[in-house]
TrEMBL record:
Pfam families: DA1-like. GO terms for molecular function: ubiquitin binding. It comes from the Eukaryota. This is LIM domain-containing protein. It comes from Heracleum sosnowskyi. Residues 19-211 form the Protein DA1-like domain.
Length: 217
């Protein structure tokens, strides 16, 4: 997937947030990057509590260069990637979204939903949350987006029966990975957030988090 084929997916994730009355009001630059680039920027920004090999990242700082994937094409048996370097400088709360190139659309969409929730909370003033609370909510959004996209996404609606079954299997795999994650931050955070949201609803839960920094009990 390159930037051209990524744009419709980005629009789908935006629709998901708009359907929850959580429209992101800032126009956030979004880039597909390779693993080396996202690891380099994660290290530069001191993201000590994040995954060692992140597949997505939100940046809040300005004044840095990012080497992104502009397009890709098949040459023989190899995929060739064309990259370009861009300078990120703006005064927004969220300066960019970075996603690792090379994963299936469904996986990138789930990662984007996760990262967009980080962005939404930052823009709406959710600061100072524990990492377990913030990552837990973001994992719930990724999990919910997979359910939502399975009903409305073009990948599921306009495809062959075999391709649709593959996507259903991939969706189940991605959700199972979130549900069974044994990491305290991501897995534990997800299960705590999911419990609260199922009991109290998303709107009340995120409102409670905004006021107290904790999930409702």
């Amino acid at each position: 997937m390159d930037n051209e084929t990524y744009i419709p997916l980005f629009q789908e994730v935006n629709k998901f947030f708009e359907g929850l009355n959580m429209k992101i009001i800032e126009d956030i630059p979004t880039f597909l990057v390779d693993k080396h680039e996202i690891n380099k920027l994660s290290h530069e920004f001191g993201e000590k509590d994040q995954l060692r090999n992140p597949v997505g990242m939100v940046t809040y700082k300005s004044g840095f260069f990012v080497k992104s994937v502009a397009r890709s094409f098949l040459g023989g048996k190899n995929i060739h990637v064309v990259k370009k370097v861009q300078y990120i400088r703006n005064d927004q709360e969220v300066t960019s979204l970075l996603l690792v190139y090379g994963f299936p659309r469904l996986a990138i969409g789930a990662t984007l939903a996760h990262e967009m929730m980080h962005a939404w909370m930052r823009i709406e003033g959710y600061k100072g949350l524990t990492i377990e609370v913030e990552e837990g909510i973001c994992e719930v959004m990724a999990h919910r987006w997979l359910d939502w996209y399975a009903f409305v996404g073009d990948d599921f609606l306009h495809t062959t029966p075999e391709q649709a079954q593959f996507l259903r299997n991939l969706k189940e795999f991605l959700q199972n990975k979130i549900e069974r994650n044994d990491c305290k931050i991501y897995g534990g955070g997800f299960r705590d957030a999911k419990w609260a949201i199922e009991k109290y609803g998303l709107k009340y839960t995120i409102s409670h988090v905004a006021q107290t920094g904790k999930f409702p009990q």
